[in-house]
Amino acid sequence: MTPSPIIAPSILAADFAHLADEVRAIEGAADWVHVDVMDNHFVPNLTIGLPVVQSLRKATSLPFDVHLMITDPERWAPGYAEAGAYNVTFHAEACEDPVHLAKTLRAAGAKAGLAIDRDTPVEPYLELLPYVDTVLIMTIKAGFGGQRFLPEMLDKVRDVRRRITAKDLSVRLEVDGGIAADTIARAAEAGADAFVAGTAVYGAEDPAEAIRKLRSLAEGVS
Ligand SMILES: O=C(CO)[C@H](O)[C@H](O)COP(=O)(O)O
Ligand SMILES: [Co+2]
C-alpha cells in the first residue's frame, strides 16, 4: 500500500518574472513546489540558484522540493537545506558519496533525495535506500522541461518500489519528466507516490485545477 500521492508542480514551466505569484497560484492545491536548479555543467541548461530560493522561501509556506542538476552537490546542497528547503535531491551521477551527503542534508534539517537520470541503472543504488528520504526517477533526460515521458523508465520505478516494500522503508518514490494526465496513472501503477509536473500544471489555463485532476488520476490507482 503506497502513501497518498504528492503532487509537486515544477516552477521550471512558470513565468520566471512572476515567480512569487506563480507559486501562490498553486497554494492549497499542490503538496510541494519543485525547484529545478541547473548549472549549465551537469546539464546543458541554466536556471536559478540559491538567492532565488532564499527569496522565494519568504513568499510561500509550501514545502520546497529542490532538484539539483549540478556538479559538486557536496558544495552547494547544504545551502539549500539551510535556506529552508523541505527536500533536497542531488544526482547519483554527480555525487561521490551519496550516504555522506544525505547525512549532511538531514543534519541541516532537510530530507535527502537521490535522483537517477535516464541513462543510469538503478540497481547499484538500491542498497542506499535506507539512507535517503526520496528517490527521484527521471522519466526524461534531465535538463529541459516539456519533453516526452519515457515509459521504459518505469522498470526502474518498479525496482525501487519492490525494494522499498521488501525492506519496509519510508522512502518517497518520485517521478520527474513528462508527467501529465495521460501518463501519471502509469507511473502510479508502477509504484511512484510523488509526481513532478511542470508543463502539465503551468501550461494549463487553471494550474490549481490541473493539480486536482492529476491527484485524482494518481489516487485512482492506489
Ligand atoms: O527536472 C526537470 C527537467 O530536468 C523538470 O522537473 C521536469 O522537466 C518537469 O517539467 P515537465 O513536467 O514539463 O517535464
Ligand atoms: Co526536476
From TrEMBL:
Its EC number is 5.1.3.1. It comes from the Bacteria. Its cofactor is a divalent metal cation; Zn(2+); Fe(2+); Mn(2+). The active site is at D36 (proton acceptor), D176 (proton donor). Pfam families: Ribul_P_3_epim (PF00834). Substrate binds at S10, H67, G143, F144, G145, G146, D176, G177, G178. Keywords: Carbohydrate metabolism, Isomerase, Metal-binding. Belongs to the ribulose-phosphate 3-epimerase family. Catalyzes the reversible epimerization of D-ribulose 5-phosphate to D-xylulose 5-phosphate. This is Ribulose-phosphate 3-epimerase. It comes from Paractinoplanes deccanensis. The lineage of its organism: Bacteria, Bacillati, Actinomycetota, Actinomycetes, Micromonosporales. The gene is rpe.
